[in-house]
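Quick start: read one record
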Amino acid sequence: MPNDADPFDHKIEVVIHGDAIPHFAVVHYTENRELMIRAHSLSVGDIVEYRLCGAAARMRGFEASDFHGFVNVVPMADAEIVELQKQGFAYMQ
């Protein structure tokens, strides 16, 4: 490979916030089945990780236990994005 670049030595962190939050709730699995199957399959192997805003989830009436197991609930999306940028992740919207 040119420059010893390993295409599998990368990671994608998806920070879930706002109107996307209910899609990841177990209670809404039936209407989001295909999306959840795809999202879960991408999380296998630690290449894609999902982080969901706990503050926004609580404002919508959800608790951390209401989401699929492959989703990590973090305290606040904005702070998580800042921390990921400090770790070297690029921000894409």
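The first helix runs from residue 33 to 43.
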